[in-house]
Amino acid sequence: MSIVEGSARADGIVRTSDPRPDAKWARHARFAAWRFVLQRGSAAVLGLCVVVHLAGIVYAVRHGLTSEAIVARMHASAIWPSFYAVFVVVVAVHAPLGLRAICDEWLGWRGRGIDAVLALFACVLLAGGLYAVASLAG
Question: Structure pTM?
């Protein structure tokens, strides 16, 4: 709707004849805020996880660890499987939210359909990642 179709009040707010209740817009804004917080929060944790993961790779390469030695360390400690489980959960949150933003802003895909597809994508990432962690953790 354009401004011409509405009526301006003294406080500058334009009211239209749009029958949508304000509660719907408030809920939409609340979900958008939560998506923003989850995207940025997961990015922060993901950044830390990537640094730790790369440091582990550098350590393994410099000390000549074989894949068998790395898997043995995964079996010997609960810390590494826990770390990678957190890594997987953060990726499963972060990636679909980023793809949702891309679908919305670049492709114009909006609505429950794309949300359902991305929720399914998040479940696939989560299930596949946790399966891999469980396989390596023994």
Answer: 0.78
